[in-house]
Amino acid sequence: MLDQAEGYTTADGRKIGPVVMEMKNITLRFGGVEAIKDISFDIRQGEIRAIIGPNGAGKSSMLNVISGFYVPQDGQVFYQGALRPPMKPFQVARQGIARTFQNIALFEGMTVLDNVMTGRLTHMETGLFWQSMWKGKAEAEETANREVAERIIDFLEIQAIRKTPVARLPYGLKKRVELARALAAEPSLLLLDEPMAGMNVEEKEDMSRFILDVNDEFGTTIALIEHDMGVVMDLSDRVVVMDYGKKIGDGTPDEVRGNQAVIDAYLGVAHD
Ligand SMILES: Nc1ncnc2c1ncn2[C@@H]1O[C@H](COP(=O)(O)OP(=O)(O)O)[C@@H](O)[C@H]1O
Ligand SMILES: [Mg+2]
């Protein structure tokens, strides 16, 4: 099914392309704690790739390596065919990678629209110097950025709250605003750390639909961490399973579901 060079076609007929991100033998330590132990996996163009595993497995750490927030002690990250040297998160963002956080990180006092506009920061070229010298360029840029932000707000169906301060929103909507901000960066790779954690069933269904729509409409490659096995099975094309910093499974949802090491890890959690 998997043609390493070219990609593959999903059961629902979507075309998955070549590898865009390759993690090779990644090891990450915090003092004596090995959060990631010699893990390799790849992410393909257009894919929805899930990272799952019990609490403390190292999932968020892995997403933080992909986003450049952590630099691993060992291993290499290849992005779009090239070895990526250690980079600052803003440099990684400029390469087209955007993310949301496990714990919502929005500006609570600012409106939804202004929060989404902050997602455009990596695209703003006009510095203060040009803003003072050439007002027209700054204004044109502001207008273009606002148009992108408004388009994303429409897409995620949050027009009605665009002027509402984020602090007043219920949890599920805050998660959607965070997704909107990440999308405003027009990423080619979108990283979502537990986008559905703490949501009720209806909110989870909405978020699942938006994730699928983003992938479908913009062709965005998505790597997401999720706890709910049902959601993972419905959403993702391929799944990496982590446990105690190790990779214990990698494959389609069906392959992973039948993997004994995965079953054991999950039963361990379920019967805690
Ligand atoms: N900044 C940090 N400093 C020290 N230890 C950390 C840090 N971040 C994560 N860890 C440790 O690394 C391990 C993996 O954590 P994490 O990646 O958050 O797991 P997950 O997201 O799968 O729950 C845990 O043992 C955690 O305590
Ligand atoms: Mg986590």
TrEMBL record:
The record's SMART domains line, in alphabetical order, gives:
AAA (SM00382)
* Record keyword Cell wall biogenesis/degradation present: no
CDD domains, A to Z: ABC_Mj1267_LivG_branched
Return the EC number.
Answer: 3.6.3.25
- Say if the entry is tagged with keyword Hydrolase: yes
* Alphabetical UniProt keywords: ATP-binding, Hydrolase, Nucleotide-binding, Transport
Enumerate the InterPro entries for this protein: AAA+_ATPase, ABC_AA/LPS_Transport, ABC_transporter-like_ATP-bd, BCA_ABC_TP_C, P-loop_NTPase
GO cellular component terms listed in the entry, alphabetical order: plasma membrane
Q: Which PROSITE patterns match?
A: ABC_TRANSPORTER_2
**Pfam families on file:** ABC_tran, BCA_ABC_TP_C
Query: In what residue span(s) does the ABC transporter domain sit?
Result: 21-269
Name any one GO molecular function: ATP hydrolysis activity
Query: Which Gene3D superfamilies does the entry mention?
Result: P-loop containing nucleotide triphosphate hydrolases
Name of protein: Sulfate/thiosulfate import ATP-binding protein CysA
Q: Taxonomically, what lineage is the organism?
A: Bacteria, Pseudomonadati, Pseudomonadota, Alphaproteobacteria, Rhodobacterales
